[in-house]
């Protein structure tokens, strides 16, 4: 199973709402944050062209040793997932749906502010980390 390294939620205006970096053993977060944040932005144009108006589909872009998947939600947010590029890795679509569930639960909160420019909720970060951890352990 491919290890998830990056989960990013991008707004309809192409601004990052959330960037989660999930380093493996021996990796430092500092360099990965820069590398993966840049990668998420580079992937936006490609993924946008591939998806056009096909909300809910997952597109793939390989960059160096990372497979970058993107999904356009019904609300025009983009979910970008980066994981280790492996031949024959199973579909990441199930993982993308789990990420979407966390996002929908967050936005369904009656206190959610539609004008916020980033997702700073510790609860959201913890839920996302749980989803990634379960996936990386093969429990999802």
TrEMBL record:
GO terms for biological process: endoplasmic reticulum to Golgi vesicle-mediated transport. InterPro entries: Longin-like_dom_sf (IPR011012), Sedlin (IPR006722). It comes from Yarrowia lipolytica (strain CLIB 122 / E 150) (Yeast). One of its GO terms (cellular component) is TRAPP complex. Gene3D superfamilies: 3.30.450.70. SUPFAM superfamilies: SNARE-like. This is YALI0B08316p. Signal peptide: none annotated. PANTHER family: TRAFFICKING PROTEIN PARTICLE COMPLEX SUBUNIT 2.
């Amino acid at each position: 199973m491919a290890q998830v390294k990056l989960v990013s939620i991008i707004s309809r205006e192409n601004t990052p709402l959330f960037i989660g970096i999930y380093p493996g053993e021996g990796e430092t977060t500092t360099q990965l944050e820069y590398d993966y944040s840049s990668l998420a932005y580079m992937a936006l144009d490609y993924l946008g062209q591939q998806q056009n108006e096909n909300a809910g589909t997952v597109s793939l872009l390989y960059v160096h040793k990372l497979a970058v998947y993107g999904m356009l939600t019904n609300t025009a947010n983009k979910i970008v997932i980066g994981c280790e590029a492996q031949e024959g890795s199973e579909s990441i679509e199930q993982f993308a749906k789990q990420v979407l569930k966390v996002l929908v639960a967050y936005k369904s909160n009656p206190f959610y502010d539609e004008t916020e420019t980033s997702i700073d909720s510790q609860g959201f970060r913890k839920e996302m980390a749980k989803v990634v951890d379960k996936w990386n352990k093969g429990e999802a």
